[in-house]
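Fold description:
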Amino acid sequence: MMFRTPKVKFNAPVTNLTLMLKRNALRRALASFYSTVRDDSAVHKVIISKSHDIVDNLSLEDWLYENAPLKPADTILLMWRSNPCVVIGKYQSPWLECNIPFLQENSIQLARRKSGGGTVYHDLGNINLSFITHRDNYSRSRNLEFICEAVSTNWPHLNLSVNSRSDILLNEKFKVSGTASRMTRLRAYHHCTLLVDSDRQLLSHCLKPTFPQENLTTNATASLPAFTAMLSCEEHKLNSNDVMDVLAQHYIKKVSTEFTRASSCSVAYKDLTDQNYFGIENIQKELRSWQWLYGRTPNFTLTHEVTENYTLQVVVQQGLVLSTILTLL
């Protein structure tokens, strides 16, 4: 049985005490996953992050994707909620996707994830789900149907469906979930949002572009506008904690019945500590860096009419101003 583990040479000579402690920490972290694995079984885990920091949660997702042992039938469902923030896709421009001055004035965090797709607003009323699997077991449609089934089973009058763009719609009209994914040769994750009772007004303010789209020339991926709604619009007493509990229990029930060889199904609430997830601080550092957040922005040119007689053209590469041209009309 083969597992993919971080590239650390355990048999190399250890001359540094700090390095030895880190290697031991990595062994302990991976042991928590290996302890439930058997050759003749599948392992299904629901992990719920205790952190409400978006970078912590994106880092946990990336750590599990890179390091958690996954056999073809194994699955991990990671769920989290974050404090108010805006999350852009890997190939997007923050200046095109959100109101950066408004975010800064209101201490709302901006983050760039490692998957493609469009921009989303997060707060504690929004549930984020990440289905981490072996590449052979990847299925967006199965994951989205699971969400619809879990919600509809417990709140039957909520009419949820999946459209051709892998969005979940309420009453076949209002978007309550957007989706994105990331894949390598052996593993994949599909993640999506679920708007339960988010602040709709704050969502609207955050997702206004800093510069009008017609003023920017760029190859950056642009988000597609959509009418959104909250599940709580139809079920007024609904809250994200209740929905998250239902999703976790329904997932365990589903994998227990559909995967006949499943020997381990569990729900765990996790803190992000170096002891549990060795090396996660390096991912956090990368995702918080200016280089990742702004420097990874696809190049663009901003054209701005300064006065009736002058136009300013600003060329930006890797998040930095390369040149400015003032033109007399």
Q: What stands out?
A: The CA atoms of residues 216 and 302 lie 5 Å apart. The first helix runs from residue 17 to 34. Residues 1-14, 31-39 have pLDDT under 50 and may be disordered. The radius of gyration is 22 Å.
